[in-house]
Write a structure and sequence with these properties.
- By secondary structure, this protein is an alpha/beta fold.
- It folds into two domains: 17-36 and 44-70; 95-439, SGNH hydrolase (Rossmann fold).
- It is 33% helix and 15% strand.
- The chain has helices spanning 7-32, 45-70, 149-155, 167-181, 230-233, 254-257, 297-315, 351-358, 368-380, 391-395, 421-439; strands at residues 95-99, 135-139, 160-165, 187-190, 197-201, 206-212, 217-222, 239-247, 260-263, 282-286, 289-290, 321-325, 386-388.
- The strands form three sheets. A seven-stranded mixed beta sheet has the order 4-5-6-3-9-12-13.
- Belongs to the PC-esterase family. TBL subfamily.
């Protein structure tokens, strides 16, 4: 799957070809009927009627052809799904953050008990905690509808939604819960399909759950066999075994249970502090046997994504909605999290600053953001998954992390303050689900 194209780029080729064809057709008609726009010879009623009829017919045909060229819909198997959630073409991911000082309140407050303490920037007295939600994402050619909690509950009554992935998906899950909890307090807490956390809004029978999984695939510590083996013969004496074809048990049952799944992975694949490439590397296994020669983490990521996408598609019932969320950016400056990196910004970055921080060619501290997306797009091509692209809008928001208020020994420039930017992710998520539901 190619990176998301701008609407103008998507429309340029078909519309240009169409107008070229239309011009050619009109010129040919003029030639065949000896049409001369400069002639002052009177036109008979019959010839005028015939001319008008032919012109109107051609115009109707042109309108139909133009409509089909402007709104291409592809089958699930040909490309990863794109969507225009309004009657006019609009790319919600292309826009900028607009400051709105008139915002008096947030969608929920710091009293929502599901907010992890380190993300509760209001409670932790982060200096710009109240300012974070005053920045509104504005797509260039349309508006992103704000999340309507009551409408969401009504629209997705008798539905189960599962968030599968690392703690950034929990960040988004908590945001969704807090917004829904504001309008519906009759909630049952439980652990559906072995979820880490789950809630059912009883009045609507809407369930949302979070299944924690760092790599999506099952993994655990690997130790050498005293009797030797293939990896031992290559000098490996420690590491982490990653079974590329076995889903993590915490979410293996989720695809059968949920009507909607939203999946992510990425942060742990570029984590040398956890998976040291020398001292404790990732060692990939398939069908219980080590993959030889051993492969690097990026190749292992491709293998895991391919297997897990296939697994989800085989387990979910027809009509279920499968979504993969793109990578959430970190904003460490001056070093990584364990080397003095920080995120002291108090307002969103400028476009030039975004490129300086995330351009792959710069190979900076946060380079994994776009690298992970490259692997996602490549592997998801041809699948039945929709892609929820939150990366670009989030790259600007260096100001929206807990930073020093996260309560850790280092700045938290990876997770997001709540309330905060993941509320906007859920604006996009709701628009996505509404679009899919309307067109299913």
């Amino acid at each position: 799957m190619l990176p998301l194209l701008k609407v103008e780029e998507e429309l340029k080729s078909p519309s240009s070809h169409f107008f070229s064809l239309l011009t050619s057709t009109i010129n040919q008609w003029r030639k065949n009927h000896h049409y001369n726009p400069t002639s002052k010879k009177p036109t008979t009623p019959f010839s005028l009627s015939l001319t008008s009829f032919l012109f109107l017919s051609l115009l109707c045909f042109a309108s139909l052809l133009l409509a089909f060229s402007l709104f291409p819909f592809s089958s699930p198997s040909s490309q990863t799904h794109q969507f225009h959630p309004s009657s006019e073409p609009c790319d919600f991911t292309d826009g900028n953050w607009v400051y709105d000082p008139t915002v008096r309140s947030v969608r929920y407050d710091h009293t929502c008990k599901e907010i992890f303490k380190g993300w509760n920037c209001i409670l932790n007295n982060k200096s710009n905690a109240f300012e974070i939600s005053k920045w509104r994402w504005k797509p260039r050619n349309c508006d992103l509808p704000p999340f309507d909690a009551r409408r969401f509950l009504e629209r997705f009554r008798d539905t189960s939604i599962g968030f599968i992935g690392d703690s950034l998906n929990r960040n988004m899950f908590v945001s969704l819960f807090c917004m829904l909890r504001q309008v519906s307090s009759d909630v049952k807490k439980w652990h559906p399909a072995k979820a880490d956390r789950g809630f059912t809004f009883l009045q609507y029978n809407l369930t949302i759950a979070y299944h924690r999984s760092n790599l999506l695939a099952r993994y655990g510590r690997w130790s050498p066999n005293t009797n030797g083996g293939a990896l031992e013969s290559l000098g490996y004496n420690d590491g982490y075994r990653v079974d590329i074809d076995v889903p993590d048990g915490k979410w293996a049952e989720a695809p059968r249970f949920h009507d909607v799944v939203i999946i992510n992975t990425g942060h742990w694949w570029w984590a040398p502090s956890k998976f040291d490439p020398v001292k404790s590397p990732m060692l990939f296994f398939e069908k219980g046997m080590p993959i030889l020669p051993p492969v690097a983490p990026d190749a292992g990521l491709d293998m895991v994504l391919k297997q897990m996408i296939s697994y989800v598609e085989s387990k979910m019932r027809p009509g279920a909605i499968r979504i993969f969320r793109t990578q959430s950016p970190r904003h460490f400056e001056g070093g990584d999290w364990d080397h003095g990196g920080s995120c002291p910004r108090s307002k969103p970055l400028l476009s030039q600053e975004v490129e300086e921080l995330f351009n792959v060619e710069n190979n900076g501290t946060n380079v994994e953001t776009r690298l992970v997306n490259h692997h996602l797009y490549k592997t998801l091509k041809g699948s039945s998954f929709y892609v929820l692209n939150i990366t670009h809008m989030s790259e600007y928001r260096a100001d929206a992390h807990p930073s020093k208020a996260g309560g850790k020994r280092h700045d938290d420039c990876m997770h997001w303050c709540l309330p905060g930017i993941t509320d906007t992710w859920n604006d996009l998520f709701a628009a996505y689900l509404n679009f899919v539901k309307d067109h299913s």
